[in-house]
Amino acid sequence: MSTPCHCVQLRKAARKIGAQYDAALAPIGINIAQFSLLRAVERGQPVSLTELGRTLDLDRSTMGRNVRVVEKLGLVRLDRGEDQREAVVSLNEHGVAVLRLAEPLWERCQRQVADQLGPTRLQLLGELSQLF
Amino acid sequence: MSTPCHCVQLRKAARKIGAQYDAALAPIGINIAQFSLLRAVERGQPVSLTELGRTLDLDRSTMGRNVRVVEKLGLVRLDRGEDQREAVVSLNEHGVAVLRLAEPLWERCQRQVADQLGPTRLQLLGELSQLF
DNA sequence: GATCGTTGCGGGCATATACCCCTTATTCAT
DNA sequence: ATGAATAAGGGGTATATGCCCGCAACGATC
Lengths: 132, 132
Description:
2 copies of one chain form a homodimer.
Chain A: H1 6-25, H2 32-44, E1 47-48, H3 49-56, H4 60-72, E2 76-80, E3 87-91, H5 93-131
Helix pairs in contact in A: 1-5, 2-4, 2-5, 3-4
Chain A binds a DNA duplex through helix 1 and helix 4.
C-alpha cells in the first residue's frame, strides 16, 4: 500500500508542535514565528532583512512581511542602513519587554515538547534542521 | 546561550523537504499538499470536507480552501451529499490521470529524501508523526 | 409538528511562506 | 569614469493554515 509521505508526516508534526508553542505564547500576544524573529533581531540588531532571511533561512520577501507584522505590533523599529538599499531592524523597548516576558513561556513549552518527544526523537529535530 | 527552538527547527526542515517535493511534482503542476489531498480523496471518495479534514488532520476551513484549489485545477468534482449539508469530493478523470502521473515523481522524491535521511532518522520521523 | 442542540460549510480575517518582477543603490570591470 | 552586473527592497500573486462567526440542515425531544 501507499507509504506515508515523509513530507506530509513532517508538516503534520510541525503544525502540531507549532500550535503548542503558539498556545504557550498566546497570553502575550505573539506566536512562535514572531518569537523566533524577535530573538533573531535581538541577536543581530540592527540587522537587515536579507541578513535576517539568511539567519532564519526564510525568503527575503517573507522576512519583509513578517517584520511588518511585528512592526505593526509595535515591537521593532525599521530604519535605513548605511547602504541606502538596506532596511535595518532593531527591537524597541516594547519589543525587548515582550521578549523578556515571552522567554519563560517559551522555555516551559520547549521543555514540555522535549518531554513529549524524548531524547532520541528530540535529537532528530536538530539533525534534520542541520541537514538542510 | 539560547537553545535552538524545537519548533523552529522542525518548521525549517518541513519547509526544506516540502520544497523538494514541490519541485519534484512541479512538472505536472501540483504541489505536495495537493498531491496528498488528491490521494486522500481517492482513498475515501466520495468524501466530505469534514471527513477529509479528519483524515489529513487539517482544519475544516483549510480543507474547504484547499479543495477549492484542486477544483480550480479541474482535478476533482464537488457534489452535495445525501446529508444536504455535506459537500462531497471525488476525483474526476483528469484528477485520476494527474495522480497516476504524479505517483512516480513522488516516489522518486520520497526515495531521495529517504536516502538523504538514512534509515534511523526516517524511522524516527515515522515515530514523530505517530505521536500526534 | 415546533424547538433546540449539533453538525457541516462558507466567508471574513490574519499569518507564514514562496516566487516573480520592478526600481533603486552599490559594486565591479573595462 | 562609465556602463554592466549584482544586491536589497517592495509589491503583486498564490497557497497553506487556523480561528471565529453565521447560516442551513439534521435529529431528538416534547
